[in-house]
């Protein structure tokens, strides 16, 4: 089946890379058909599926592959201005295809070294998208921040993988792993080894205190860069963290409490910071740090509730934050400002945008019927089972997330609008379509939530 589908996908990518202003909609249609043919061949209800010695799939990898394909398509639909202005469209499309290939290699790899190579490969197209199609001159500094943080954190991971030798390379080989750690790593060095193995993924998620690259990268990136950063690349850190923690589960209690506590404190502090920001894009970017703090807490508890909740939160946050970045970009293209002081009164001019913004904000605060609600319940149960004292900060961080989300909604949608731009503020069908495609799966995935429970059963 895969041999039949791969040529079809390749033809879709070739068709997409040769797109021009005349045939871009035919190309989009062809890509959508190829996407659904691919997804129809993958089943979430199967367990671990070994395709070859290099490629292995399970529920988590297939879920994130679905998310990657879906968000790449949303990126393409939200970048119509780049194609209409012919702003290096072939290079832009090539970067999106390279990014998708690196993500697929990461999620399908059954070998840690192959996963590491694909993990680093995803940096290159993301850096080009940020630096090539960003809005402000500060995008160069943002790109350097993005590269340096990720590379310096991932070098210890590579050294540790090489130190542990080939017996640690396979993600699915469980035999004699305890012996490898017990005899190859002494007690004093085991804690350092644990930090070296997980630090690259904590920076990628990102964890509080290693998050400074994220707001810079988001603020300077074009809409597609922000969508793929929040939608999939942050989830690449969570995916790698789950894969590594499954191998060193027995040493999880060494230092996991430190990172879990730091994430809880970070959620609270980020919530307080967001309550005084006046940049719409910065608000959405910092909310990603708060949500990924929830995921880190769930994963480091080492419990099934936390793992399943973390997976659901990664899927739901990828869709929700990508939709919010789309909305902010639509406002920015009209007013050329992301300031809350200028973006006011949208409800009086474009009420359909206000409705879409409200539904996205509801998913951002884990309101029903979004799948965010179920994922946050799972994460709360796992953190409560880990340590009851964590519940002092966990609800506070979640509550502050609701506070700054409604602060963002009320300030941007209500109030007196900017009179100068009243004449050309209108909504287009394609924009409403993209926002609707973000909202629809968030609210309907909860009807089929058992798809995400099979990974750790």
Automatic annotation (TrEMBL):
Domain NADH:quinone oxidoreductase/Mrp antiporter transmembrane positions: 109-400
Keyword Coiled coil: no
GO cellular component term of the entry, any: mitochondrial membrane
Superkingdom, taxonomy of origin: Eukaryota
Reaction equations catalysed: a ubiquinone + NADH + 5 H(+)(in) = a ubiquinol + NAD(+) + 4 H(+)(out)
Domain NADH:ubiquinone oxidoreductase chain 4 N-terminal: 1-105
Topology within the bilayer: Multi-pass membrane protein
InterPro entries: NADH4_N, NADH_UbQ_OxRdtase, ND/Mrp_TM
Bilayer-crossing regions: 57-77, 89-107, 113-134, 146-174, 180-203, 223-242, 248-275, 282-305, 311-332, 344-366, 386-407, 419-447
A Gene Ontology BP annotation from the UniProt entry: electron transport coupled proton transport
Subcellular location(s) of the protein: Mitochondrion membrane
Protein keywords: Electron transport, Membrane, Mitochondrion, NAD, Respiratory chain, Signal, Translocase, Transmembrane, Transmembrane helix, Transport, Ubiquinone
Signal peptide interval: 1-21
Molecular function (Gene Ontology), one example: NADH dehydrogenase activity
Predominant localisation class: mitochondrion
Class of enzymatic activity (EC top level): translocase
Transmembrane keyword on record: yes
EC number, as in UniProt: 7.1.1.2
Pfam families: Oxidored_q5_N, Proton_antipo_M
Family designation: Belongs to the complex I subunit 4 family.
Function: Core subunit of the mitochondrial membrane respiratory chain NADH dehydrogenase (Complex I) that is believed to belong to the minimal assembly required for catalysis. Complex I functions in the transfer of electrons from NADH to the respiratory chain. The immediate electron acceptor for the enzyme is believed to be ubiquinone.
Protein name (record): NADH-ubiquinone oxidoreductase chain 4
Organism encoding this protein: Friesea antarctica
Native organism taxonomy: Eukaryota, Metazoa, Ecdysozoa, Arthropoda, Hexapoda
Gene that encodes the chain: ND4
């Amino acid at each position: 089946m895969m041999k039949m589908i791969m040529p079809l996908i390749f033809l879709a990518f070739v068709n997409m890379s040769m797109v021009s202003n005349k045939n871009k909609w035919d190309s989009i249609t062809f890509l959508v058909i190829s996407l659904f043919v691919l997804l129809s061949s993958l089943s979430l209800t199967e367990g671990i599926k070994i395709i070859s010695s290099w490629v292995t799939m399970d529920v988590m990898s297939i879920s994130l592959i679905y998310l990657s394909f879906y968000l790449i398509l949303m990126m393409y639909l939200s970048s119509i201005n780049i194609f209409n202005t012919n702003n290096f469209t072939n290079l832009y499309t090539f970067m999106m295809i390279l990014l998708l290939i690196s993500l697929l290699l990461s999620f399908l790899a059954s070998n840690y070294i192959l996963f590491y190579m694909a993990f680093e490969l995803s940096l290159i197209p993301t850096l080009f998208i940020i630096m090539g199609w960003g809005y402000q001159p500060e995008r160069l500094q943002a790109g350097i921040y993005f590269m340096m943080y990720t590379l310096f954190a991932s070098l210890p991971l590579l050294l540790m993988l090489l130190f542990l030798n080939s017996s640690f390379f396979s993600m699915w080989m469980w035999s004699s792993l305890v012996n490898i750690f017990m005899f190859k790593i002494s007690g004093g060095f085991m804690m350092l080894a644990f930090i070296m193995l997980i630090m690259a993924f904590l920076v990628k998620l990102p964890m509080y205190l290693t998050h400074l690259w994220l707001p810079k990268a988001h603020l300077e990136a074009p809409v597609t860069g922000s969508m793929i950063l929040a939608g999939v690349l942050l989830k690449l850190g969570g995916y790698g963290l789950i894969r590594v923690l499954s191998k060193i589960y027995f040493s999880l209690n060494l230092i996991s409490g430190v990172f879990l506590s730091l994430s809880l404190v970070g959620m609270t502090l980020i919530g307080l910071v967001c309550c005084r920001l006046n940049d719409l894009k910065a608000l959405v970017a910092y909310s990603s740090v708060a949500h990924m703090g929830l995921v880190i807490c769930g994963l480091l508890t080492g419990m099934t509730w936390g793992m399943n909740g973390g997976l659901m939160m990664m899927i739901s946050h990828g869709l929700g934050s990508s939709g919010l970045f789309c909305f902010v970009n639509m406002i920015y293209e009209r007013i050329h400002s992301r300031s809350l002081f200028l973006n006011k009164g949208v409800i009086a001019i474009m009420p359909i945008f206000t409705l879409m913004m409200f539904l996205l904000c509801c998913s951002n605060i884990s309101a029903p019927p979004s799948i965010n609600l179920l994922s946050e319940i799972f994460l709360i149960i796992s953190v409560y089972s880990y340590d009851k004292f964590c519940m002092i900060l966990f609800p506070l961080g979640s509550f502050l997330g609701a506070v700054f989300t409604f602060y963002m909604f009320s300030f941007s949608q209500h109030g007196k609008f900017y009179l100068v731009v009243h004449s050309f503020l209108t909504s287009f069908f394609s924009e409403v379509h993209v926002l609707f495609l973000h909202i629809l799966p968030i609210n309907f995935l909860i009807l089929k939530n058992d798809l995400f429970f099979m990974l750790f059963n």
